[in-house]
Amino acid sequence: MAQGGWMSMGCDLHVHSVYSDGLLDPFEILDLARSWGLGYLSITDHDCYEGSLLLLGKSGRDLVILPGAELDVAEDVELLLYGVPNERLLELTRRICQERRDVARRMVEAIRVATGDTGLHFEQDIAARARGSIMKPHIARLCVQRNLADNFLDFKKKLHNDWMPQGVPMHQKPAMTDLVSWAREAGCKVILAHPLYYLLPRIGGKRYTSVEELLLMDVDGYEYYYDYKDQGKEHEDLLLELNRAMETHAKEGGLLLTGGSDFHQPGETLSLEKVPDLCGRTIQEALLGNLT
Question: Which domain holds residue 248?
Fold first, then answer.
């Protein structure tokens, strides 16, 4: 039984909307979360708060809304930030969103040249429809529609190996120490997102060498409940080692363990009972000064 006497089935603290690479409007996600009985919800778009902030004030007895965002840092990991951002964080994310648009425009132009496909149009097919952060999935969807790639993984391989072998441009990512400092200044909590991924080979990303290296990061907690799908099954022993280490480190250091579905589109499932209400409650309690 959750606080307040109402029953809920779980929570989801990692959800993407059309303000980054998701396909649903924040209010559509809100309706979906309520229809499925979630107790806590956080929209955490990549480098963008706009979608999450639309739901401020929409909490009720049945569902608590926690503001959030997911940001890339220079150390090649992603951090989930929970709490209402201050002006510094808003300025940072808006700058990054603009840089992402500029980078995406350069990518599309490079793909046009490399493939000879003059039907690729950044402005009308991507920029005109995107509300916040423009990312590789936006371009990948267009390339799949144009039969230039089979799926997102095929797109990434072609982008790095064939279309932009000289190097794929990137927006300027903040240093982790800076972002953590700014987040704490705003009263937000910083969580290391899907940590197993950083221990595996990644296209265009750094591979961390040990669980201990991740646990040395100065964060407020870890995304413990996360469905890594086939990668989790393939690396079951490593995931078990990681989860045990996160549990121990969180208990000894008073850190938070959170979770979410990384929801992007219809057909995927919000976390429901997979992520316990306790994750949402502990974040909510940790943010009391920020949310009031």
Answer: 3-91+173-291
pLDDT band at 4 (very low <50, low <70, confident <90, very high): very low
Bridge partners for 266 per DSSP: 268
Task: Take residue 14 and report the two structure tokens written for it.
Answer: 């990692």
Predicted pLDDT at 104: 96
Are residue 53 and residue 145 in the same domain, yes or no?
no
Q: What is the pLDDT of residue 204?
A: 75
Q: How far apart are CA 150 and CA 144, in angstroms?
A: 6
Angle at 223 between CA 220 and CA 226, to 5 degrees: 175
Instruction: Give the pLDDT confidence score for residue 264 in this predicted structure.
Output: 95
pLDDT of residue 272 exceeding 80 = no
In whole angstroms, give the CA distance from residue 213 to residue 47.
24
The CA distance from 215 to 210, in Å, is: 9
Q: Are 282 and 215 in the same domain? A: yes
Gap between the Cα atoms of 158 and 248, Å rounded: 41
